[in-house]
Amino acid sequence: MNDFLSEAASADLTRTPAWQALGAHHTHVRAQHLRELFAQDPQRGERLTAEAAGWYLDYSKQRVTDETLRLLLALAEQCGLPARIAAMFRGDAINTTEHRAALHTALRAPEGTQILVDGIDVVPEVHAVLRRMAAFADAVRSGAWRGHSGKRIRNIVNIGIGGSDLGPVMAYEALRHYSQRDLCCRFVSNVDATALAEATRDLDAAETLFIVCSKTFTTLETLTNAHAARAWCVAQLGDEAAVARHFVAVSTNAEGVAKFGIAPKNMFEFWDWVGGRYSMDSAIGLSLMVAIGPEQFRDMLAGFHAMDQHFQSAPLAQNLPVLIGLLAVWNTNFLGAQTQAVLPYAQYLSRFPAYLQQLTMESNGKHMTLDGARVGYATSPIVWGEPGTNGQHSFYQLLHQGTPIVPCDFIGFCQTLNPLAPDASGSDSQHNLLMANCFAQTEALAFGRTLQQVLAGGADPAVAPHRSFEGNRPSSTLLAERLTPHSLGALVALYEHSVFTQGVVWNIDSFDQWGVELGKVLAGTTAKELAALDAPQLAHDSSTNALMQRYRKLRKETP
Ligand SMILES: O=P(O)(O)OC[C@H]1O[C@H](O)[C@H](O)[C@@H](O)[C@@H]1O
């Protein structure tokens, strides 16, 4: 057993005293409505809140009592959370199945901090790469870096998938307001050739820079797209040598990058102790840095770091990531929720739910404990969501009146970056409308509308039951003053650490992803069979065989 694992963490979770106490306690909470909890405690909405790194968390509309919180905090203690947090920040090999540290926190550690991996301080390396990235970003932004034919770079195409795509594209969209207007960034991830074809259709190769992002530099989708992009570029510019001015790489695999034909001086490195889904603040964020500039990127890192410090040092009861993580455990394991909706009331955060899907589900979608036993409890919720108010006109019907319980995280900002409709008081009426929707939704979910209220409003008694809302649907609200690189960094770190908190309680490895491997291996074999058009025998199951045969037949007949 690893020395950072406490005895309790390795014992069967469901037999720990805190878990058992929560099991006994949850029937009591289930019998209570949020209406009663608020009526009993007029200060609840101010009391069940916490604040850190510019973010205010209101979790008073979660179905918890003070006793629930006390028991959840006891559970965290019994699972050894404080020791596990310390182990992560220290650089212990907490990713046990891959024998690696999970040190994304080192990516935003200020210069002068010392973090040792195998006896070597990694912080100077992190800052050396950041400086190289900054010099490159400045050169592209100023026009000092020219394309092969001497033209200025106007377009950046990031090629990567999973963590090498979702973080950069989410953050680029989130921080568009801060990006250089004459630079256009596009992101290609899917191996469907349509993605690359549409991303490059209207571009001039002479003005286009490809950033190929892949931690391993072996990912089939990324290498396939990178080769296709290279062919497109060379065909347009008529010279193989153009690759040197139009391709850079971000990877841990220098050999793979060199083999592709990108010179070491055009490669930005990161390290195996950075997980793909935890890498947007490493060199994987190069496209973002080119778009928003090194200063704003550093501001984002400072936001990450502020939340890291809070997670590391705040008491568990006031610790935002810990609270959010424990509430997820409560909702999943005791209230029976299977999914979690993330609802940003900010168009700029349109890709945030997709980003959180990988962060959460690839991290905690596991069924084996660190000790190699099958878990006897549910682990990661299914994460989904859309920006408000769009979601309201789509799936909120189910949130309000459906049969499943869906805990919601509402995320919003007090100030808009695009004031289109300033009113007499100086605030923006369009933004007021957006946020009014956000607050009203949390209220409606929690308190609903009783049958009596509906009837008192004069509704037809036959329709009244359909128009009543049970309420008692849990949500949290995260509010910050303004969407800035700093507040975005803090928000991402908040969720990273909340996912870690859940993983610690569930006693799973939140940093491996073996479940993705099988699909990759099978697709490789199948791709070979599809390529060999006339190969007579297929040895899959009858369904897969029939599908492949049909595909081959129709593909052949297509002119
Ligand atoms: O960055 P790469 O090595 O190309 O990996 C890209 C992605 O590959 C797999 O899908 C992994 O499960 C992801 O965690 C990773 O982000």
Structural domain tally: 2
- List cofactors, ions and other ligands: 6-O-phosphono-alpha-D-glucopyranose
Q: How far is it from the N-terminal to the C-terminal residue, by CA?
A: 61 Å
Strand order of the largest sheet: 1-2-13-12-10-11
CATH architecture of the largest domain: 3-Layer(aba) Sandwich
Query: What characteristic shape results from the CA principal axes?
Result: globular
CATH superfamily of the largest domain: Glucose-6-phosphate isomerase like protein, domain 1
Structural class: alpha/beta
**Regions with little confidence, pLDDT below 50 for 5+ residues:** 1-10
Arithmetic mean of pLDDT: 95
Question: What does the radius of gyration come to?
Answer: 25 Å
- Major sheet, described briefly? 6 strands, mixed
CATH topology of the largest domain: Rossmann fold
Instruction: Tell me what portion of residues adopts beta-strand conformation.
Output: 5-15%
Count of helix runs: 23
Q: Give the % helix.
A: 40-55%
DSSP strand tally: 13
CATH level 1 name of the largest domain: Alpha Beta
Break the fold down into its secondary structure elements and pairings.
Layout: H1 7-10, H2 17-30, H3 34-40, H4 44-47, E1 49-52, E2 55-58, H5 66-78, H6 81-90, E3 116-117, E4 120-121, H7 123-142, E5 155-159, H8 166-174, E6 184-188, H9 193-200, E7 208-213, H10 220-237, H11 243-246, E8 247-251, H12 254-260, E9 267-269, H13 286-292, H14 294-313, H15 320-334, E10 339-344, H16 352-364, E11 382-384, H17 396-401, E12 408-413, H18 429-447, H19 451-456, H20 464-467, E13 475-480, H21 485-506, H22 517-531, H23 542-557
Parallel strand pairs: 5-6, 5-7, 7-8, 8-9, 10-11, 10-12, 12-13
Antiparallel strand pairs: 1-2, 2-13, 3-4
Helix pairs in contact: 2-5, 7-13, 8-13, 8-16, 13-14, 14-21, 15-21, 16-21
Bound molecules: 6-O-phosphono-alpha-D-glucopyranose.
6-O-phosphono-alpha-D-glucopyranose binds near residues 163, 215 and 516.
